[in-house]
Design goal:
The structure holds 2 protein chains of 2 kinds.
Chain A (H helix, E strand, L loop, with lengths): L3 E2 L4 E5 L4 E7 L4 E9 L6 E7 L4 E4 L2 E6 L4 E6 L8 E9 L5 E3 L3 E6 L1
Parallel strand pairs in A: 2-11
Antiparallel strand pairs in A: 1-3, 3-8, 4-5, 4-9, 6-7, 7-8, 9-10, 9-11
Chain B lengths: L4 E3 L2 E4 L5 E6 L6 E8 L3 E9 L2 E4 L8 E7 L2 E6 L8 E8 L8 E2 L3 E5 L1
Parallel strand pairs in B: 2-11
Antiparallel strand pairs in B: 1-3, 3-8, 4-5, 4-9, 5-6, 7-8, 9-10, 9-11
The chains are: A mainly beta, B mainly beta.
Chain lengths: 112, 114
């Protein structure tokens, strides 16, 4: 049973436009959500996170939105740049549980 | 700090052979994780150590897989005997706490079992 779902395996966006990556979860006990970015032949690196007590967190070009009622979060990248081309993983953590539950990832391709 | 260091970067082995993957976590981190990434299943947590003690190994696929952490600066993941379906990228990661808020990954070991 996949508790964290990234339903789009890939996404192609024009450079300069907004990229929106989506993530859905099923467990209402999740209290912290993270986005990681992964380049080929490298390990994932932390990008941005959000606590369940917030509905938005912004860091430069990256904004994460959390809709708890819909059990949905999204990552917005604006403007998109060629260096943003990577696989993006959504992850979630349960309260008092150490383990991150990961989505399958979305490959973002920024077209010049 | 050099980050999480994994070796080897690539491993090709024949079915039935023993494979050992190695990891050096970031100095000072007290949590270490072994993950496996495949196209079908994404990132799967195999085992988690806290202060060198295995906390949860429920993600380890079967008895052919074993992991050790003899000290705070070294861990191994062993597969014996290896099978073609074990082919994947194996990541080691470490963090300061078990909460995973800032988990740092190594570059991974790409394992191919033929």
């Amino acid at each position: 049973d996949q508790q964290v779902k990234q339903n789009s395996p890939s996404l192609s966006v024009q450079e300069g436009r907004i990229s929106i990556l989506n993530c859905d979860y099923t467990n209402s006990m999740f209290d912290y959500f993270l986005w990681y970015k992964k380049y080929p032949a490298e390990g994932p690196t932390f990008l941005i996170s959000i606590s369940s007590i917030k509905d938005k967190n912004e860091d430069g070009r990256f904004t994460v939105f959390l809709n708890k009622s819909a059990k949905h979060l999204s990552l917005h990248i604006v403007p998109s740049q060629p260096g943003d081309s990577a696989v993006y993983f959504c992850a979630a953590r349960k309260d008092s549980n150490y383990q991150l539950i990961w989505g399958a990832g979305t490959k973002l391709i920024i077209k010049p | 700090d050099a980050g999480v260091i994994q070796s080897p970067r690539h491993e090709v082995t024949e079915m039935g052979q023993e494979v050992t993957l190695r990891c050096k976590p970031i100095s000072g981190h007290n949590s270490l994780f072994w993950y496996r990434q495949t196209m079908m299943r994404g990132l799967e947590l195999l085992i988690y150590f806290n202060n060198n003690v295995p906390i949860d190994d429920s993600g380890m696929p079967e008895d052919r897989f074993s992991a050790k952490m003899p000290n705070a600066s070294f861990s191994t993941l062993k597969i014996q005997p290896s099978e073609p379906r074990d082919s994947a990228v194996y990541f080691c990661a470490s963090s300061l706490t078990g909460g995973n808020e800032r988990t740092f990954f190594g570059q991974g070991t790409r394992l191919t079992v033929v």
